[in-house]
């Protein structure tokens, strides 16, 4: 049995009378690629902010990397990486300066930063661009660099919020190859997306509808359960069932 990187039980976030996250429960194993899917406004980002130690839940329980979301938010932040939905690096710093800055924020030692930043730039094929401003890079390269920075300190878990939004299909595939490499190095990946085809790349997925977990399983098991040929069909059926229930 693998250890659990994330545990949620009846996790809820309420704003007034509105429940953005409504008693969600799931577990994520260490080294797993866990997809957190749903339409915009389904509650994905709100739940992720809680798990990243950026927001307190209204009720329920959750732990991330073994730390409690109520009492140990700072310890959570030290053990995770995070890539936001919007590009999170500084356009007015060079590639190398961005790497050095964020590695320092994550507590990586200066000798290690120097050694590993050289390796990273070489791996990305950006040797000639290392001293150029990040603002001049194409979006796809920005996203790949942002992901590399998010895992530079070798966190236990990396949270990716809509990481491939706006990039072309080829770059999206390359990005997922980087995710596979991260998991091969022992990093657990928790990724939100509204691209249903990207669910196929995950070990397991949870589909959010109106703040609730409507289904959770491997992509193949969900397609079999709903007699579907694609995750789009699965999501459509779940959304239709939720509408019937609300009506």
Automatic annotation (TrEMBL):
Pfam families given in the database record: ABC_tran
Transmembrane recorded as keyword: no
Domain ABC transporter: 6-235
Leader peptide range in chain numbering: none
Family matches, as Gene3D superfamilies: P-loop containing nucleotide triphosphate hydrolases
UniProt keyword list: ATP-binding, Nucleotide-binding
Listed InterPro entries: AAA+_ATPase, ABC_transporter-like_ATP-bd, P-loop_NTPase
Keyword Calcium: no
Name under which the protein is recorded: ABC transporter domain-containing protein
UniProt organism field: Flavobacterium ginsengisoli
């Amino acid at each position: 049995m693998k250890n659990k990187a994330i545990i949620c039980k009846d996790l809820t976030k309420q704003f007034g009378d509105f429940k953005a996250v409504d008693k969600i429960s799931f577990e994520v194993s260490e080294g797993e690629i866990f997809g957190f899917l749903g339409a915009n406004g389904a509650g994905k980002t709100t739940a992720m902010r809680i798990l990243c130690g950026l927001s307190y839940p209204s009720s329920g329980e959750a732990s991330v990397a073994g730390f409690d979301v109520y009492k140990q938010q700072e310890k959570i932040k030290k053990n995770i990486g995070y890539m936001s939905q919007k590009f999170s690096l500084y356009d007015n710093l060079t590639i190398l300066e961005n790497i050095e800055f964020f590695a320092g924020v994550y507590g990586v030692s200066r000798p290690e930063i120097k050694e590993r930043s050289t390796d990273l730039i070489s791996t990305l094929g950006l040797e000639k661009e290392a001293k150029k401003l990040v603002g001049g890079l194409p979006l796809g390269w920005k996203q790949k660099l942002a992901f590399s920075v998010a895992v530079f300190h070798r966190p236990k878990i990396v949270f990716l919020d809509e990481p491939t939004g706006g990039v072309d299909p080829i770059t999206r595939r390359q990005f997922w190859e980087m995710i596979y490499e991260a998991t091969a190095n022992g990093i657990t990946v928790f990724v939100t997306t509204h691209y249903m085809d990207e669910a196929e790349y995950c070990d397991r997925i949870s589909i959010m509808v109106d703040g609730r977990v409507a289904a959770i399983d491997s992509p193949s098991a969900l397609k079999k359960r709903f007699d579907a040929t694609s995750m789009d069909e699965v999501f459509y059926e779940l959304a239709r069932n939720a509408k019937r229930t609300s009506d």
